[in-house]
Amino acid sequence: MKIQTALLSVSDKTGIVEFAQALAQRGVRLLSTGGTARQLAEAGLDVTEVATHTGSPEILDGRVKTLHPKIHGGLLARRDDPTHMTTLDEQGIAPIDLLVVNLYPFRETIAKPDCTFGDAVENIDIGGPAMLRAAAKNHGTPAGGVTVVIDPADYSRVLADIDGPTGQPSYALRLELATKVYAHTAAYDGAIAAYLSSLATAEPAQAEAPARSTWPRTLTVQVKQQQELRYGENPHQAAAFYVDQPVKPGLLGSYRQLQGKELSYNNIADADAAWECARSFQGSACVIVKHANPCGVAIGDTPLLAYQQAFKTDPTSAFGGIIAFNRPVDEATAQAISNQFVEVLLAPGYSSEALAVFAAKKNVRVLEIPQGNAQNAFDIKRVGGGWLVQDPDIHQMGSEDFKVVTELAPTEQQMLDLRFAWRVAKYVKSNAIVFVGNGMTLGVGAGQMSRIDSARIASIKAENAGLSLAGSAVASDAFFPFRDGLDVVVDAGASCVVQPGGSIRDDEVIAAANERGIAMVFTGIRHFRH
Predict the structure, then answer these.
(1) For residue 241, how many other CB atoms are within 10 A of its CB?
(2) Is pLDDT of 245 > 60?
(3) How far is the first Cα of the chain from the last one, in angstroms, to the nearest whole number?
(4) 136 near 17, Cβ under 8 Å?
(5) Is omega for the bond preceding 246 within 30 degrees of 0, making it cis?
(6) Is the separation of the CB atoms in 374 and 358 below 8 Å?
(7) Any idea which residues carry the catalytic annotation?
(8) Edge-to-edge strand order for the sheet containing 440-445?
């Protein structure tokens, strides 16, 4: 059962002219719609408009054009059922053997900052999904069936099979493409459902999309597999990496790997933590992460200076770590990094000389991530039998949000250090205590059940690295419930502290700060990170 008739109607025109030309050369009749038909005709191809084929004109501004028995009958008739084929003959319906369709760009439309509700609705495809589902349903049996294609990357595979002995794609390919279709239409419907569910319950204005008022009753998440991973957190766990469609620039999922071994589950998790921290800084910054926690963070006039200061914080933990920069990496920085063992490097770019340095270390994974301010729409955490969903922690603190609560106010330099420490603490697992000085971390205490223990660990880390905490600034990701935690950081050398406040014992802690002669600032914002 050779392919005799193909219907082509695509929003993504990549390679469609060349594919249609190849089909025409093999004697396939071409049907098409709208812009696709015009493009094929302009290329000199003999193409029949769907309206001519059905005898029914497009109506309702193109909302109805392929919803017709001559289209769906041609797609759905079973080739191995004599009754079906007789019905086609009686109704004057020609079988459609190949369907090439991709859908209106709904996701791309709603991603535009100026997208209106009307724009979104008009980009909900109706006829396309109906044809795709019909063709995929009738992908047939080994004896024959409809071939359906949504991805230009599959054009060459279809042609190769057509040129085979049977003159049609194999059953294995038809089944694979049909499966791909249902995943595609499910994702498409999911994107529409997510968009509509996110709207306010009030009647939407025709000009503007209403803002979200509450979380949707049904949350649809559609992601695409980027790669299967060697294993998960541990070798006995299978794992894969999935990304949003499309991935927005600036997010880790938009990375391009320039060299090195395949990324592992832990590599990706740690790389995300490092990248998110690094890109939160305005000036040149370097972040070194180990086991999802920053073990060294610094800002500097150059990436090299930032790296050197970040490395000083905890050289032991930096071994085998993940290093992220928010500026392109040059040769001098690459040479310095090459002296340590590093698993993954992330930056918005690399000089050719820097890449030449890393090329000598073939196992180092070098990732390039395009600059961008995109943020995830929400965070998800899996729990037994359910999901926890929340807004991402992207709160930006302004200078006016730092409220001095002690008799002693921070100096200008202390305030700079407090802001730096507060920014870093946001990316440290709770309970988090971060000592800093002059734009670099001095000691980091993370993930302890007791805030006092985090403070003690941070000071021990600093001592082990040979760093003095005298005059340092300290950030605590949540309030000090008692004065004892404050006393520990002051005993270690802290001269000023930033914390959210909000404890029933705030007055006691403030009094302790005044007693110890340090400055303290409240932010009113907590940064738990579990």
Answers:
(1) 18
(2) yes
(3) 59
(4) no
(5) yes
(6) no
(7) 137, 291
(8) 256-259, 365-368, 342-347, 321-325, 285-290, 293-299, 440-445, 433-437, 472-476, 494-499, 519-522, 403-404
